[in-house]
């Protein structure tokens, strides 16, 4: 059984750029270089560095031999992943009906462990225009070791696979580039293509307008925020502190603020640039609460990016120090008990780091020192920043009440929106964009490209005006410190404080802080006026001057 919505969405035919609708020719640009650390990146990727940006244009129809292709879903889920696979399937079948698509199960680990299925039309058709990654599952295995690469090539050869498409975020596409370089150096004859996925929106640059899933996730969260704001404005008795996904950048928080106009939205990048302390942030929120209380409005909404705590300069320094301390072999020997690890951490911290550590609420300090992800980093999503801030704001308001600067009521509710948006049914924008990314990947494969990321540009225009092509993954790389060592990685895109989206937000937030200016976006619409159904994010529209 499937829902009526699933039945109707299965009939939706995603739109394609004109350059992918018939015969195509690859137009090559100038040689490229990495965004930074050019010599180091070139030395690490001698076979895939400096390649040109590719753009597909209308061209004569060509005959292509059958090609077997493998596909991997890597990392966290994002709406539209199934359409990338659908577009890839349709693309290779359009080039030659004898082509086959194999899906490696549960992420990169499926390649290493030789776990796969052939994706047939019967399977693909059940997943068109649906959310989630459940068609083949996803995983977070990193492709970094030679043993993994060699294990992978065995099954790729057994299945006669010509190319591998890795659908993932910045880390996954970095791994794709490493794999492409290794196979190219060994002359193994297997191409590797990446696709830009992450709801966080931080995989973007001059070539990549947006990562897929960002549009749908933000519209899903904005619907929920709008619903809360409607309730908030009806009951008129709660301040809602809402934490949103986005560890490394505040794109989701900013986009949701643009869509809903909350009373307060914190932008991590601004906090860092202005060197704001935790007290500065608390004072800002308290000022909004007090100003609204003067008008009799003891209610409001506060949006908080998931990674905020890592951008507060003093805490950011502490976290970097903790990451270095806890990534060592010696640290692992001291992690047998909670008390031992805390004692060890405190003994290794600098005087400055120890002062900051001891100044934090005990529960937050413990989470920083104890809860680590598989890569040894702080699990900021587990730190309940929304509760920490509301608790501190409450204390501040009590101080203000004692000196006659506040005379209101402050009752709070807390929310964390994360998983609610990761597997939502894709918006028309993401359904079209993702299908085009997958179809485009088949064209990159047909043209012999490896070490490229599939890109679709000009997406605020009608779909037949979108521009399809590819960008060398090395072009987006720089060297960064990871787990105590310098490694090549795709540079994350942070919110640009001089960019149009943030400037628009900054120009209006003082009014939003004091007055009730809420917008109620409502649920994602799939049928109806194009102005409602096909609109891009506010972020992308402002960036393009629309």
Strand-pairing-aware structural class: alpha/beta
Backbone shape: globular
N-end to C-end Cα span:
42 Å
Q: Give me the side-by-side strand order of the main sheet.
A: 1-2-13-12-7-6-3-4-5
Mean pLDDT: 94
Structural write-up:
This protein is of the alpha/beta class and 546 residues long. 44% of the residues lie in helices and 15% in strands. It has 23 helices and 15 strands. The strands form 3 sheets. Strands 1-2-13-12-7-6-3-4-5 form a 9-stranded mixed sheet, with helices on both faces. It has a 4-stranded parallel sheet with strand order 9-10-8-11, with helices on both faces. It has a two-stranded antiparallel ribbon with strand order 14-15. Helix 3 links the parallel strand 3 and strand 4 (100-104). The mean pLDDT is 94.
Helix and strand layout, with pairings?
Blueprint (H helix, E strand, L loop, with lengths): L3 H7 L13 E5 L9 H7 L9 E5 L9 E6 L7 H15 L4 E5 L3 H5 L3 E3 L2 H5 L20 H13 L2 E8 L1 H16 L5 E6 L17 H22 L3 E6 L6 H10 L3 E2 L2 H6 L4 H17 L5 E6 L2 H4 L1 H14 L2 H5 L4 H11 L2 H9 L2 H9 L14 H18 L9 E6 L1 H4 L5 H19 L5 E6 L9 E6 L4 E6 L2 E6 L9 H15 L15 H4 L4 H6 L3
Helix pairs in contact: 3-20, 8-9, 9-21, 11-18, 13-16
């Amino acid at each position: 059984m499937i829902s009526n919505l699933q039945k109707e969405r299965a009939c939706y035919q995603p739109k394609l750029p004109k350059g992918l609708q018939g015969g195509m020719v690859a137009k090559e640009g100038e040689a490229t270089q990495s965004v930074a650390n050019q010599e180091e990146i070139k030395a690490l990727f001698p076979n895939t560095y400096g390649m040109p940006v590719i753009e597909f244009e209308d061209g004569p129809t060509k005959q292509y031999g059958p090609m077997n292709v493998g596909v991997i879903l890597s990392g966290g889920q994002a709406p539209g992943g199934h359409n990338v696979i659908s577009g890839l399937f349709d693309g290779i079948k359009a080039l030659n009906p004898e082509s086959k698509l194999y899906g490696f199960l549960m992420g990169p680990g499926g390649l290493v462990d030789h776990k796969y299925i052939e994706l047939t039309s019967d399977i693909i058709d059940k997943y068109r225009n649906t959310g989630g990654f459940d068609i083949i599952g996803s995983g977070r295995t990193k492709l970094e070791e030679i043993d993994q690469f060699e294990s992978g090539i065995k099954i790729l050869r057994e299945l006669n696979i010509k190319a591998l498409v890795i659908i993932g975020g910045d880390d996954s596409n970095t791994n794709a580039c490493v794999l492409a370089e290794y196979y190219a150096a060994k002359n193994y004859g297997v191409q590797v293509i990446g696709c830009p996925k992450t709801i966080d929106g931080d995989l973007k640059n001059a070539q990549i307008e947006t990562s897929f899933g960002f549009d749908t996730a933000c519209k899903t969260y904005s619907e929920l925020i709008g619903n809360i704001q409607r309730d908030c404005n009806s009951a008129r008795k709660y301040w809602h502190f809402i934490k949103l996904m986005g560890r490394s950048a505040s794109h989701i928080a900013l986009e949701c603020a643009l869509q809903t106009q909350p009373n307060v939205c914190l932008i991590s990048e601004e906090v860092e640039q202005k060197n704001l302390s935790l007290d500065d942030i608390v004072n800002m929120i308290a000022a909004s609460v007090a100003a609204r209380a003067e008008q009799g409005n003891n209610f409001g909404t506060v949006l908080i990016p998931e990674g905020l705590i890592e951008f507060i300069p003093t805490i950011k320094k502490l976290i970097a120090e903790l990451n270095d301390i806890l990534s060592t072999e010696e640290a692992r020997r001291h992690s047998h008990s909670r008390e031992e690890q805390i004692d060890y951490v405190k003994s290794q911290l600098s005087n400055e780091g120890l002062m900051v550590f001891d100044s934090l609420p005990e529960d937050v300090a413990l989470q920083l020192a104890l809860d680590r992800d598989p890569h040894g980093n702080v699990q900021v999503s587990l730190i309940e920043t929304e509760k920490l801030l509301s608790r501190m704001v409450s204390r501040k308001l009590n101080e203000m009440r004692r000196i006659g600067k506040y005379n209101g009521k402050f009752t709070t509710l807390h929310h964390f929106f994360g998983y609610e948006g990761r597997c939502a049914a894709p918006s028309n924008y993401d359904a079209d964009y993702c299908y085009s990314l997958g179809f485009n990947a088949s064209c990159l494969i047909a043209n012999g490209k490896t070490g490229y990321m599939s890109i679709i540009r000009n997406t605020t225009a009608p779909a037949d005006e979108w521009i399809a092509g590819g960008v060398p993954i090395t072009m987006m790389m720089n060297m960064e410190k990871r787990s105590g060592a310098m490694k090549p990685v795709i540079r994350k895109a942070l919110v640009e404080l001089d960019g149009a989206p943030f400037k628009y937000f900054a120009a209006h937030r003082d009014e939003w802080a004091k007055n009730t200016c809420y917008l109620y976006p409502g649920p994602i619409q799939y049928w109806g006026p194009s102005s409602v159904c096909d609109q891009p994010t506010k972020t992308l529209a402002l960036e393009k001057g629309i």
